[in-house]
Specification:
Structural class: mainly alpha
CATH architecture of the largest domain: Orthogonal Bundle
Number of strands: 2
Mean pLDDT: 94
Strand order of the largest sheet: 1-2
Distance between the termini: 24 Å
CATH class of the largest domain: Mainly Alpha
Largest sheet: 2 strands, parallel
Radius of gyration: 16 Å
Order of helices and strands: HHHHHHEHHE
Low-confidence stretches: none
Strand content: under 5%
Shape: globular
Helix content: 40-55%
CATH superfamily of the largest domain: Hypothetical protein, domain 2
Amino acid sequence: QAGLSWATVLKKREGYRKAFADFDPHKVSLFSEEMVEELMLDAGIIRNRLKIKSVIKNAQLFIKVQEEFGSFDKFIWGFVNHKTIKNSLKSMADAKATSKESDALSKELIKRGFKFTGSTVMYAHMQACGLVNDHLTDCFRYNQV
């Protein structure tokens, strides 16, 4: 979602799912320049050529990481020592947008050639995948993550 509001991206989630083959990296990694042109006409997604091309390149790199580490899961969990970071937030004002772990993950991905993988985007990904628990301490989900 680099540079865009989450609301904008989430409204188009199903469009992205359809456009990018249910997010299957093996399928997306094979997208041709012709497919990029088709996606540039797809009103169901945000039509930014650089970002579309980066999704394809990132899918190719994702597969390389899977091959190197056995899974992307093993790779990414290494940035949090293979256990969830459980922050103790009392209010959303305490929430942060990045961490030293998301900084390190971002730097490593960029070193490997990934695009649009800045620390803020990586922190959001880490939250979504359960690597970081930023639920408020009084949230019913806090102890479930």
